[in-house]
Amino acid sequence: MIKQEIPKKLLFIGGAFQEAASYKTLYSPHSGKAIAEVAVGTREDMQRAIAHAEKAAKTMAKLPAHKRAAILQTVSALLQERKEEAARILTQEAAKPISMARAEIGRTIETYQFAADEARRLHGETIPMDASAMGENRIAYTVRQPVGIVGAITPFNFPFNLVAHKLGPAFAAGNPVILKPADQTPLSAFFIAELFAEAGLPEGALQVVTGRGSEVGDEMVCDERVKVITFTGSPSVGKTIRQKAGLKRVVLELGSNSGLIIDEGFDIEPIIKRTVTGAFSFMGQVCISLQRIYVHRSLYDHFLEKFVVETERLRIGDPADETTDISALISKGDTERIQEWVEEAKALGARVLTGGTEGHVVKPTVIVDAAPHARVSCQETFAPVVVISPFDTFDEAIEAVNDSTYGLQAGVYTNDMEHAFEAAECLEVGGVMINDFPTFRVDQMPYGGVKESGIGREGIKYATEEMTELKLVCFNRNK
Ligand code: NAP
Questions:
Q1: What is the DSSP string of 255-298?
Q2: Which atom of ligand 1 is found nearest the CA of 165?
Q3: pTM of the model
Q4: Which of 73, 235, 290, 321 has the greatest CB tally within 10 Å of its CB?
Q5: What is the domain range of residue 327?
Q6: CATH classification at residue 390
Q7: What is the domain count for the chain?
């Protein structure tokens, strides 16, 4: 049999693709076939990348706003031209069903446009110095200056758009970036690096160093020349990074077990499909995936019946097929982990209304009567598993959503204005969606969590601020 050639992906350091000391075979989570040989960077490779980034920081800081905006705009346009190719990469490396992969690329195109807009409007403000007697005859204003080297560490689940949420603001603000993509999704990172090179980004302003997170990621986190670490991933890694980062700024976008309340009297028919999408989109491997649904007892049985019917309509298959909704989880280990969690929930008294496994695939699973301390309830499943529970009073539902170590987003469907205001005020999360699921996000809105869901906000404008230093300039006109 002829051995099929697979691409070899080198490190991207100092504006050039460079050989690494060793390579790792990347396998498709769906087919198990080898899809690439990927460079395994070392601590020394990261050191070289940081040295190049130091030089690029000076070039980037001098690049005027219109040129930064033009580069970002060009990348957006290039991605638009090559969007199908990009979507296929996602399907291959992450097993993202092709319709969802296309949706992610559409969002990424827009995210880079928002970043181009932000580069043009980044500004400071004038300060009314004479509001203090001591400030009379002084003119002062602030400017936002680039912070310096940005270290970006990204997860596997949205490898194009979540990378854009780091590169876009960093370049809008005039910073260089070293990107350490997730082990399972490096191909998208190399692809976007090529687009930035083609768009004219200065040499060394974007470098991609693949390799073990605990090695190359750690090297970046501990180096004092790196000024910001922007991390999206699991809370456990986020905590380690925070402990090691010293005085550098750290933005952490972490996990969640997002909750939704469906209030008394709400018409459930129109929201069944949407709630099923919220729970099972990309097999639940979404940080704001709908994991816990609290339904008013008067609607509970009817909701369960409809929800299960809609869930069972989801099609399992090859992620490259147009009609596939559900495919393999990112790794075999994750499939085994979630099976164990479901078994634990059952042992604690839960019932599984639909679910199970089919080969590598975890079927969309609906659980009721789950104990609050079962892991499917209180930890992040990051799998197609949803827990549905009834409630009697609205306060009880709010308390149940808040009974979590996480707090990223929450949703409430209600016809009662007072309940909507109460939810907006009392839910302990970074974003409250009234009359929508918690899984809603557009890329310009502030996005981030409280509690173990993270620190800081993304959304281009907000992330750009995190990647600048605010400097005050004061003119003394007193003689
Ligand atoms: P992960 O295991 O935490 O990995 C994320 C990144 O951190 C990867 O690039 C990983 O590299 C790297 N890493 C691992 N150990 C490290 C260390 N000691 N120092 C520095 N970097 C290290 O997360 P994941 O499984 O890819 O993604 C799933 C998680 O991301 C979920 O918890 C999800 O909720 C969260 N997430 C949050 C958001 C949000 O915006 N809040 C969005 C998407 C996902 P390796 O792959 O090489 O280990």
A1: ----EEEE-TT---GGGHHHHHHHHHGGGG-STT---EEEEEHH
A2: 40
A3: 0.97
A4: 290
A5: 258-442
A6: 3.40.309.10
A7: 2
